[in-house]
């Protein structure tokens, strides 16, 4: 008489599979807060960020001025909201330039190899000898300080690291079985790059773009603090931080209000990049 044994396989509950990690929730919430500040913040506050009222200097929060006024009587909350737009424009533009340079160069050097790889790698090594912030300062010194120059300067300072990262990923992708199979089937180099290499780079590009956005926000603040970024009276988070420097001992709240958005935005980008990396790695492993 045979005994039959029933094996019960317990599958994860749907709720457990849909559970969102805490860090992902925090990062998404902070990112949404920054996005809302950029999109509807100026309209919601309803104050002119450039209106000067000397008789109302250093007013405390309340009434029409949610975060008080600065050394010229301008509304601090409005300048933070309008500054978020300038900072976001610079960050997105710089990352777009770096991505537009890094992906073609990284794919070509990693896929073709040979003298192309040698030349581009040597140029990248040359840029690595100079700190990225010094490259940005040099570009601004040549063309002058403005929003456009800051975007260009940061974009040119990010592409070497990004190119090397893409190249390393492509070197690993080109030895995969699916790439070899496409070659055996007679696919051209362009088709292999388009269908096999670029699709494999999507997770890396998403994660690295998010990381670079955080770096760009931080570097824009550094350049603005040094007086090399957005120029007054135009508002940005970096320039707002520089303006509050002279009054940090008597009115430290101005520097605090200017620095907190930078910290929160960079923290949000770091959390989102970590969450993206974990999720994409889990899908690839699965």
From TrEMBL:
Give residue ranges for domain ABC transmembrane type-1: 84-273
Q: Which GO terms describe its cellular component?
A: plasma membrane
State its location(s).
Cell membrane
Q: Which Pfam families match?
A: BPD_transp_1 (PF00528)
Q: Which residues cross the membrane?
A: 20-45, 88-114, 126-159, 197-218, 254-273
The Gene Ontology biological process annotation of the record reads: transmembrane transport
Which PROSITE patterns does the protein's record reference? ABC_TM1 (PS50928)
**Which InterPro entries does the record associate with it?**
BP-dependent_transpt_permease, MetI-like, MetI-like_sf
Alphabetical keyword list: Cell membrane, Membrane, Transmembrane, Transmembrane helix, Transport
Asked whether the UniProt record includes Transmembrane helix among its keywords, one would answer yes
Name the domain of life: Bacteria
- Tell me how this protein sits in the membrane: Multi-pass membrane protein
Instruction: Give the family from UniProt.
Output: Belongs to the binding-protein-dependent transport system permease family.
Q: Which PANTHER family match?
A: OLIGOPEPTIDE TRANSPORT SYSTEM PERMEASE PROTEIN APPC, PEPTIDE ABC TRANSPORTER PERMEASE PROTEIN
Q: What's the protein called, per UniProt?
A: Nickel ABC transporter permease
Taxonomic lineage: Bacteria, Bacillati, Actinomycetota, Actinomycetes, Streptosporangiales
Designated gene of the protein: appC
């Amino acid at each position: 008489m045979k005994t039959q044994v029933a094996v019960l396989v317990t599958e994860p509950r749907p709720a457990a599979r849909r559970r969102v990690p805490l860090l992902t929730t925090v990062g998404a919430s902070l990112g949404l807060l920054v996005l809302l500040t950029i999109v509807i913040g100026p309209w919601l506050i309803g104050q002119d960020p450039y209106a000067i009222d000397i008789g109302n200097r250093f007013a405390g929060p309340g009434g029409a001025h949610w975060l008080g006024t600065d050394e010229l009587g301008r509304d601090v909350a409005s300048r933070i909201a309008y500054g978020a737009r300038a900072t976001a424009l610079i960050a997105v533009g710089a990352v777009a330039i770096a991505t537009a340079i890094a992906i073609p160069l990284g794919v070509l050097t990693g896929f073709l190899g040979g003298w192309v790889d040698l030349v581009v790698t040597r140029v990248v090594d040359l840029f690595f000898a100079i700190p990225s912030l010094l490259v940005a300062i040099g570009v601004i010194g040549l063309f002058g300080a403005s929003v456009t120059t800051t975007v260009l300067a940061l974009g040119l300072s990010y592409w070497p690291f990004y190119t090397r990262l893409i190249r390393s990923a492509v070197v690993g992708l080109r030895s995969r079985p699916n790439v070899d199979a496409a070659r055996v089937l007679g696919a051209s180099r362009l088709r292999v790059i388009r269908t096999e290499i670029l699709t494999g780079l999507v997770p890396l590009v998403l994660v690295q773009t998010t990381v670079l956005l955080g770096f760009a926000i931080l570097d824009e603040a550094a350049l603005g603090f040094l007086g090399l970024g957005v120029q007054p009276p135009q508002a940005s988070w970096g320039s707002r931080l520089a303006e509050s420097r002279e009054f940090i001992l008597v009115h430290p709240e101005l520097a605090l209000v200017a620095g907190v958005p930078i910290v929160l935005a960079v923290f949000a980008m770091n959390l989102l990049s970590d969450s993206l990396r974990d999720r994409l790695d889990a899908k690839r492993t699965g």
